[in-house]
Amino acid sequence: MKFSTKRNLCNKLIYVFTFILLILPANVYETYGQEKPDRSDESTSADYSVIPSLGEHKFTPNSLVKDPFIKTYIRNSIGVGQALNLDVPVVIIDGQEVFGLRGDLVFASFDFEYHHAVKDWLAVWGKFNVLARLGNDTQALLTQGITAVTGFEFGWLFKLMEKEQTALSLSLSLENGSATIINLLDYINGIIEGDRSPNNSLVNKVQSLRGGSGLRFAWAANKLFGLYAMGELLYGQSAEVRGESEFFYNLGVVFDFDLSSFSELPLGILLGYNQSNLQSSGISNTFFFRIGYNSPGDLSIGIESSINKVPVKSLDKTLNAGLTKIMLRYYFE
Amino acid sequence: MKVKSKLLMFLLVCLTATVNAQYTVGVFGGINNSNLTGDAPTNVVYKSTPEYGTGLLAEYNITGDVRISFQPMFQRKGTIIAYSVFSEREPIDSIDINISYFSIPVLLKVYGGNNIMYVSGGFDLGIKFDASFRDINSSTELNVEDSFKDFDIAAIIGVGAQFRVGLLYVFIEGRYSQGLSNIRNQKEGEPEDLNLSLRTLGMQLFAGITYSFDSVQ
Hints:
The structure holds two protein chains of two kinds. By secondary structure, chain A is of the alpha+beta class. Chain A folds into two domains: 1-34; 53-331, Beta Barrel (Porin). Chain A is 15% helix and 56% strand. The longest helix of chain A has 30 residues, at 2-31. The two termini of chain A are 45 Å apart. The relative contact order of chain A is 0.17. Mean pLDDT of chain A is 79; it is low at 21-47. Chain B is 9% helix and 61% strand. The termini of chain B are far apart. The chains are: A alpha+beta, B mainly beta. Chain A binds chain B through residues 3-4, 6-7, 9-11, 13-14, 17-18, 21, 24-25, 28-29, 32, 34, 116, 118-119, 122, 124, 126, 154, 156, 174, 176, 178, 197-199, 201, 205, 207, 209, 211, 242, and chain B through 31, 33, 37-42, 47-50, 65, 80, 93, 96, 110-114, 116-119, 121, 136, 155, 157, 159-161, 172, 174, 176, 178, 180, 193, 197, 199, 201, 203, 205.
């Protein structure tokens, strides 16, 4: 009891402090008599916008390829996905065929990010994400063990260059992920083979810590068309039980079409592609589409759809998963 | 005593070396909500435990709003090991692990436009002093120094604010500390099942007082 009370008090203090720091910038100006930037005129102007732009092109944010802009914003996305037509092979327990069926996996994703521009050349960010399986098919659940993945990431973003039509930034980041894996099949086989060691457990929690660096690039070709590109190299643990450390890469490109450039529609359409080996099981490919509304000022909201082709070691095949998200980003400055 | 004297000398050298040139020195302390992450044996959960840290700091202004900060400090890290018991819904707090470090965080601090808020980031090299294992139920305490490595390297990111009070500055800072290296020392003869990979983790809240040698400007 004593330890729990102390721990709770400690946690509360830290959360309260963090919250105060987050809201402090808004109050600091008044408290210390400094002039607060006056945006009253700007906010009534149709030209006022904090949504990133280069030249005449206004960029629509997305969650596939990270952008190079030094901005303060919060981002939140929530989505549902499904792995379709997952062929479960014949499962053999103690030499006997148990089943070999076809099933679906349903999963939900949620992430929240706060990105803060400290200077015009430096931003820091923190991100929290959850991926949880909702699962509706017993056979698929039995063979595909990952039930929940949570991750926390923080990093620094340095502006290297910004010109009329291009921007380039360097990121440094650290990610701490945790996956809860229930592997009933291996557990049963282990028991049958007499493995009663702690290594043969039904529920495993796998930690993966990775750190790395990346380059983020944006190019505005004209008022209608822009492009994001990103490359990251990370080193750290694989998301496997007692996995070894290795290198990971993450590459992506997104083509950005701003429909407001030639019409009254304040919409942005994005098409993208991403390749990475972050899953530890091999190279995964993602094809991405987004349609989103950009407010004249500081809000961007959109629907994102992606098709992910992810190799699965235990099935020795590629899993096709679709994911649809609602993503909202609000810019403060 | 010998170790303490050497550390004191080291701190004095660190401080006097920078004081002569410029700019900021100070003291700070606070709480470290510490935990361990990594491999956990079956039915075991690592829980955070409140520890503390205190130290001195010396900062050098690289530019008007960017500083490099050396913060030699003493801090304790650790965890509560809780076991899942069949008859209980929640894991039971059973073992308290404490590891004491003399650590040297080297941080880059970048101040925002108002010169009050800042962000910090960098690395922290910890040199182990001692480590103890305490059975919470029986209060039995053991020295488990050999079970942990001598060094711990952690990445730090933080956000803070400083306020001027006369000639001094008072600051308060929240930090996230993530250990990068495995601190578990596998001893000879231990079963392979106990070859666990463990890293430190901490949410820290520090406050302190600093004096800037250019603050008279």
